[in-house]
Amino acid sequence: MPSKLNEAIGTLKDAFVDLASLEVQTYTGSIDITKLKDKEGKDIDVSKFESYLKASIGRPENLKLVAVTKMNCDGDAINLVPEAGFDSHVQRVHESALKAGIETRHGIMALFSSALGVSKG
Question: Of the candidates 6, 42, 60, 99, which lies 20 to 30 Å from 78 by C-alpha distance?
Answer without folding.
Answer: 60
